Write a sequence for this structure.
């Protein structure tokens, strides 16, 4: 007799969970066309043991795309494919490529903290305001030579890292032989102007840039990349091992074709317009129905920041009704 599956929790009245891309907008036709071309043209050796660096077709496509769209300065030999930002962070710290202490934004993405805690990394918090992390605090962080930042669109404050703070963190890295880990969170989704280039373009030897397709395509496509300073390439490959165990070859070849044919760019443009319309609708609705709620942060990414009235405790009360908790 079939057993009825237990029912999951009921949907919250208002789902305020951040960073969830529109799953219905996955470019199925373009992905299928690229998958067919990739499968038909793939060399025979692509179906052998994987290369821990990732497929050369994808690394070449990424080097060109990131230079053109994000201002990243690199070449395919400095790119290592992974399965996303979480995988990159686990390789870097779980694989002992990097060690603590590590400066981090004082509040941000919870999974960053959980991965670092699992690797026993000691962290030093940097104060965050509407202009991003206060990088001027870095020189006072004793023993810290590595910092993790989300310069394009800080979560949850919603602000970018200001130009003077970008310059400050680069100066800190150069002066103290430091390293910047750049999580390019929401980097491609800026709605009020052209996206600001990656910090990596200011000094490729001092910045380790990490990106993925979790927002642009889908978190179900487990593909990401690390753009590494030259002295870290061999160490990352050592941590990854001789056989690629994470990112599937066919998905890598498909993404490379999607980029090379321009389908990826077209998809990003469509999604940028779609997400901008959604944000504009939120702004209009709030103005009409809840003018007492202020929308803060820049027009970017897949989350908006609402400043609630009611003083301390307002966030907790709303979070309880929305099925989510505020970041701390």
């Amino acid at each position: 007799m079939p057993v009825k599956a237990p029912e999951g929790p009921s949907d919250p009245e208002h789902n305020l969970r951040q960073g969830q891309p529109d799953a219905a907008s996955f470019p199925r036709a373009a992905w299928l066309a690229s998958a067919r071309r990739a499968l038909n043209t793939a060399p025979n050796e692509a179906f052998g043991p994987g290369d821990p660096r990732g497929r050369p077709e994808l690394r070449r496509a990424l080097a060109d795309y990131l230079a053109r769209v994000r201002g990243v300065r690199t070449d395919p030999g400095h790119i290592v494919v992974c399965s996303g930002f979480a995988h990159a962070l686990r390789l870097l710290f779980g694989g002992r490529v990097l060690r603590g202490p590590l400066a981090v934004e004082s509040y941000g993405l919870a999974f960053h903290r959980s991965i670092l805690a699992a690797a026993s990394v000691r962290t030093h918090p940097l104060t965050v305001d509407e202009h991003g992390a206060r990088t001027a605090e870095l020189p006072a962080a004793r023993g810290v030579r590595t910092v993790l930042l989300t310069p394009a669109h800080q979560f949850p404050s919603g602000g970018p890292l200001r130009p003077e703070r970008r310059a400050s963190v680069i100066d800190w890295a150069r002066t103290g032989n430091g390293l910047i880990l750049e999580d390019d969170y929401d980097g491609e989704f800026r709605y009020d102007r052209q996206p600001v280039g990656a910090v990596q373009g200011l000094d490729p030897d001092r910045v380790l840039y990490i990106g993925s397709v979790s927002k642009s395509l889908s978190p179900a496509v487990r593909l990401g990349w690390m753009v590494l300073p030259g002295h870290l390439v061999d160490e990352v490959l050592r941590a990854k091992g001789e056989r690629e165990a994470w990112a599937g070859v066919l998905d890598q070849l498909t993404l490379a074709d999607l980029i090379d044919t321009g389908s990826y760019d077209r998809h990003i443009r469509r999604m940028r317009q779609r997400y901008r319309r959604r944000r504009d609708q939120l702004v209009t609705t709030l103005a009409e129905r809840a003018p007492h709620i202020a929308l803060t942060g820049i027009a970017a990414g897949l989350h908006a920041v609402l400043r609630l009235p009611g003083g301390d405790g307002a966030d907790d009360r709303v979070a309880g009704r929305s099925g989510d908790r505020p970041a701390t």
